[in-house]
C-alpha cells in the first residue's frame, strides 16, 4: 500500500508541474488521483485485485502442447 501511495503522490505532483494553466486548480488534480486511489484500495480489499495462478497453469499448457503435436502428426 505504501508503494501505491507514493505512486499516487508522484502522479499528483507530475500533473501539477506539467499543467501551469490558471484555469486548472491543483485541488482538482489531488481530488482526481485520491478518488482513483480510494477506488483501487476498496477493490483490492474486496479481493478484486491481481489474481495469481498457483502452479496449475504450467501443467495445463504442457498437456495442450502434446495434444497439438498429436493432431499435427495425424493431419500430415
Please specify the SSE layout and strand pairing.
Elements: H1 2-18, H2 26-45, H3 56-75
Describe it for me?
It contains 3 helices and no strands. The N and C termini lie far apart (55 Å). The mean pLDDT is 76. It has one domain (2-75). Helix 1 (2-18) runs antiparallel to helix 2. It has helices at residues 2-18, 26-45, 56-75. The protein is mostly helical.
Briefly summarize what is shown.
It contains three helices and no strands. It has 76 residues and is mostly helical.
Largest sheet properties: none
Q: Which structural class matches the secondary elements?
A: mainly alpha
How many structural units, i.e. domains? 1
Distance between the termini: 55 Å
Q: Rounded to an integer, what's the Rg over CA atoms?
A: 23 Å
| Low-pLDDT runs | none
Strand content: under 5%
The H/E string reads HHH
Jot down its keywords.
76 residues; mainly alpha; 75% helix; 3 helices
Amino acid at each position: 500500500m505504501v508503494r501505491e501511495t507514493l505512486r499516487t503522490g508522484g502522479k499528483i505532483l507530475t500533473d501539477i508541474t506539467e499543467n501551469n494553466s490558471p484555469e486548472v486548480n491543483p485541488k482538482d488534480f489531488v481530488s482526481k488521483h485520491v478518488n482513483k486511489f480510494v477506488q483501487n484500495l476498496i477493490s483490492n480489499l474486496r479481493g478484486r485485485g491481481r489474481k495469481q495462478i498457483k502452479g496449475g497453469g504450467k501443467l495445463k499448457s504442457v498437456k495442450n502442447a502434446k495434444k497439438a503435436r498429436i493432431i499435427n502428426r495425424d493431419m500430415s
